[in-house]
Design goal:
CATH topology of one domain in chain C: Rossmann fold
Chains: A mainly alpha, B mainly alpha, C alpha/beta
Largest sheet of chain A: 2 strands, antiparallel
Number of domains of chain A: 2
Radius of gyration of chain A: 21 Å
Structural class of chain C: alpha/beta
Strand content of chain C: 15-25%
Largest sheet of chain C: 6 strands, mixed
CATH class of one domain in chain C: Alpha Beta
Distance between the termini of chain C: 117 Å
Number of helices of chain C: 13
Oligomer: heterotrimer
Amino acid sequence: MNNSPYFLKPASVQSVMLRVLVALLPGIAAYVWFFGAAILLQIALASIAALAAEALMLALRGKPVMLFLSDGSALVTAWLIALSFPSIAPWWLTVLGALLAIVVAKHLYGGLGQNPFNPAMVAFALVIVAYPQLMSQWPAAGATDFAGQWQAIFGTRQIDAITMATPLDALRTALHTIEAKTSVAGVMGSNPAIGSLGGKGWEWVAAGYLLGGLWLLQQRIITWHMPTAFLAALFAIAGIFSLIDSTQFAGPLFHIFTGGAMLGAFFIVTDPVSGATTPKGKLIFAAGVAVLTWIIRSFGAYPDGIAFAVLLMNIAAPLIDMYTQPPVFGHKDKPGDSR
Amino acid sequence: MLAAILVMALGAVVLGAALGYAAVQFRVEGDPLVEKIDAILPQTQCGQCGFAGCKPYAQAIAKGAAEINQCPPGGDEGIHKLADLLGREFKSLSAEHGIEKPKSVAVIDEQACIGCTLCIQACPVDAIVGAAKQLHTVIARQCTGCELCLPPCPVNCISMQPIGESVETWKWKYPVFKITPAQREAA
Amino acid sequence: MTALQRLFRFHGGVKPAYNKEASTGLPIAVAPTSELLVIPLHQSIGGMPRPLVTAGEHVLKGQRIGGADGNVSSAVHASTSGTVVAVEMRLMPHTSGLSALCVVLEPDGRDEWIPRQPFDFRSATPTQTRDYLRDAGVVGLGGAVFPSYLKISPGKQGKLDTLVLNGAECEPFITCDDVLMRERAGNILKGVAIMREMLDAGQVLIGIEDNKPEAIAAMEVAARDANRTAGDSTIKVVRVPTRYPAGGAKQLIRVLTGIEVPHGKRSTDYGVQCFNVGTAYAIYEAIALGQPLISRIVTVAGNVSRARNYEVLFGTPMRDLVALCGPLPDSDRVIMGGPMMGLLMPDDSVPVVKAANCILVGSKSLFPAPPPEMPCIRCGDCAKACPADLQPFEMYWFSRAKIFGKAQEYHLFDCIECGCCAYVCPSHIPLVDYYRFAKSEIWARELVKEAADVARERYEFRLLREEREKQEKSAKLAARTVAARAKAAAALADAEKPAATPEQEAKKALIAAALERTRTQKELVHPENTGNLTPEQQAVVSTIEARRAEIREMAKAHLRQDD
């Protein structure tokens, strides 16, 4: 028989994970509206692959399969992978990403709760380094022809008609590779990829993620520390540099609404297992991710640096936790650390 | 080329001087490793490891002359601690040195004791009180359970009694249970 | 009129379903005396009292049957008059299922008290008052059973800023303090007044959770009366927001005064002391009525049809009380305490002791088995709920891995085991089990380490002693040899030396004369008529001499052989 406490709150890992999935829905809806239903295919592919991989690994490790499968953590990882990869990526790319995330980044480290790195971001990093070309072919806003997208995912890839660079990619290419001295303003005005805020269509997807994230905050599944620190730090650093040289550096609002910033702020950086856990630590962690993302976006080789930034801060998370332990009851005049 | 040689030589001289200085300035008397090892050993002083006590065994381990798995009273846990301290591989308790037994204390059957003092001389921690031709008895609190008093007794009046659970020694159990497939099906 | 008091908040806490209405409908009932009372001797923190009675003795109600032994120990008394059946090991009310020494008392039905008189604490010295309370068996009745006589001294400063009375009673199901305050507020306040005087407290704050409006009203009336009697207004009843565990001593002190008393420090160092209202009542009875602690109010609730509060004599088997309340058929366990911190009892035959504030009858429907334990996802909900501002998940990781050093670095011993963390955990990890395990494991290891250190010292001393004995022996032997040799040398030297005194001269002359005599005697015995012999005669003499020498040798050898 168990010991006290005998009263337990009706909470479970499953309810947390399911609510995260629900919070992703507005963003997914915007995605489908602007970029077609391919994303739904990718989500399905990733989910099936992730669940299968998880079931296999659990069986190999001798753990109760149904119990762990039903907690929904594999599904969350799968959906984040599907949303981070181009929706017209070949089917095997997404499946590979899901497998890498579940098998390598999660189960090889010990399973649920034991992974030091964010599984979705590990998958993204591994795949973009291995297949940079495939990972840079993103759907064009408005090109919602499903047949074409299906063909792209499962068949031969004649995708020129339906792809377009992401706003970040376009900006980077324009600023860093073209000889002519373009400026941000020039790129922003002329490039068809870039809409009013963060990219045609992409800003609406980001807005959807923001909505979902705010709901997660209200549900107390995440705390305010990470999203606020991330967005504020990104806004700040992008703002400062665009004030210094507005021709070379894009403005802060652009940075917040483009790429994976919103998705990262509310869904990726807030992963409890691999991130920092103390309140102060969360602020430092999220701000660190934001700064690193901006640096990689502006000076790095990849258009969007969220994945690498998150992985770099994952390495630092235990150290951050160690140094930001909040003071214990009765010791509040000197903040305690657990060295 | 000459510059490279000069730099390497200079580096060697500087580092050598630093090491020499450190060797003299930060010299540590004695061998602190032996103390650290001795702190892990259970101090039963039983000699089952093949050495005359816990300190000699600790010295042998520090020298590399003995394995870490020779101490039955320390058990597997003691071997783990030694392995962690020394960075050596864990080996399970070596069977030729004995098996891990539950903690016991020696008890003298007072009816049978003949007062020969042989057990008093054998006890490594002086836990037996008595004198020649007087009754001997074991101070239970001081007894380490080393069993060295059992062989010398000519009338075999000493026995080992396992220490039972009492209110002072009761512990909460480790809450992790191994789930076996049969239990899973039943659950 | 509740005082307008600035209140503070403590971090975390949870709001479980309180289930308090079931047991507050009826007033306190006096539980009927059971057929047999099993009174454990060890009912408080500290050393075990020694038994003062033996089997067959007749005792009166309130007679001391266990004498306090040691600095932290409290006496135990007979709950009613009767005959001591035995002083033996009986199952004790603890999860371990172990037995402890108990006095088994058979009541004689007469309920005869010992002669009682009030104790004049005003004219007694502080030591006398402490000894009196110690021998009256008064301990903290909030559940921690710390001997109250040790808390009744005002600390280093000599006076106390604030005396806090804990009427919060935050745990679900438990209502014993609630009904005590409703029905006996007057006597509680009399006890409070006594304590205030003893501690020389500047102000008294009685904290009661706001889910107990009747108790608050009753206590306010009594406090007003007490203030009027004392001629001042130092006693205030304060309404405290209902939140588990607001009734924790440290949490309540924080809420009422803002002071956070760290672990390991005494609250008197911060000018505060906290007592349960039931303890105040017991102090009143002990001092004003001369009655030692022999009973307490116990809530019997849970899976029963008639939950109620009873005034119970210590030693009453729990099953008798449970039977009074109509346990439902699917009841399968008895818990001493509440659902958040209570201890599972090994059997329902265990007796009610001073720590038993509630007997909670459980069943699978009331307390369903928790879902299977999932891995920790470091969500931090437990840290958000912890009232001691700890990081429970870190303590969990290290306790589980048995890395006790790190667990202690995360302040494992500051944990008050309130259960808030396990309550909120989405992975359903029984966190408090890990902390209880880790704490008892650390204590056990410390005991083993101490024993090992003592064994090492004794061993080294023994080696030293043997070395010393050996040295002494060889030194003695050496000394003896030296002495012997010196003596021999001295004798020789004596013989060679020229005589120094007339006695030695005479001795020497005697020795010389004796030597001369022996020589002449030898001459006589061996006449030298063998001189001037012819060579032939000489040869014959030589052979005879040689033969004689041979025979002498043979005889000597024979003798040697016999040796």
